[in-house]
Amino acid sequence: MGTTKDAPVTGPSAATGAPPSTGRLGGAVWGALLIVYVVWGSTYLGIRVVVETLPPFLSAGSRFLVAGLLLLALVAWRQGPAALKVTRRQLGSAALVGLLLILGGNGLVVLAETAVPSGLAALLIASVPLWMVVLRTTTGDRPPLPTLAGVGIGLAGLAVLTQSGLSGNVELWGVGLILLASLLWALGSFISGRLPMPKDPFAASAYQMLVGGTAGLVVAFARGEQHGFDPGAVSGRSWAGLAYLVVFGSLVAFTAYAWLLRAAPLSLVATYAYVNPVVAVLLGALILDEALTWPILVGGGIVVAAVGVIVSTERRS
Predict the structure, then answer these.
(1) 3-7, 164-168, 245-249, 261-265: which range is least confident on average?
(2) How far apart are the C-alpha atoms of 212 and 102, rounded to whole Å?
(3) Contact at 8 Å (CB) between 266 and 7?
(4) Model pTM?
(5) Element housing 36 (H / E)
């Protein structure tokens, strides 16, 4: 995924470019945006269901390896094998971004959701745009004061959210892993726009998925997740959740997102960063009966508001 100075967009693609004009937007744009809002918001619920009976890195690695192969085949079918050709530098860049986004950013979230509610995980991951602004400052880029104020507000919200771990309501190590995952996702997103990535954004994402998924399986075997694993003991809803994540989370939503980067203003696409957590919290409460404690409600509200400030400020700058 990439980012420009116009908006702190985050997601699993490596596509960047000049933002489209803000002319009249058609129904296809709003339909694709709705997919990104709802489907990506629902992936946190899907992950929580999957790890009920499936090992975390084994499931996450398999998810992205399968999705990467499917996307690779789809690109070759739709655009021809030439679309998959990359240089060594482009492949190396895609591999690095894939490790940061998929192994680090997603893999740690999957591991953490064995102990952290899906809604809380989504709210913590909503901090990605905050870290993106922090990373920008390391390159000498000085964001506007309202953007920096948004970062400060967001960090205060994260402090409130971590009270769930400090109070013992959830595992503190899980909260820490998700915060680390959000930082790694932001880092991968940040450097992807500064590296020589494959020209085709779908091919770039496919290579990222293949590398990240393979690395996830390596970690799974290193952790011994294969020992004692019995596919017959996996629940039907965990298998269904994994299939949902492969098809809808990694293919359908990504396709909609990558298309939006070319068809809609980046400032509009960026709004998913503070819609996804709301969707995730609602689904977690309605379907999994996850508790909505005051730290989650208050801290989550502060983080979402802070991301809204950052996105709205960036689109005006």
Answers:
(1) 3-7
(2) 5
(3) yes
(4) 0.84
(5) helix 27-50
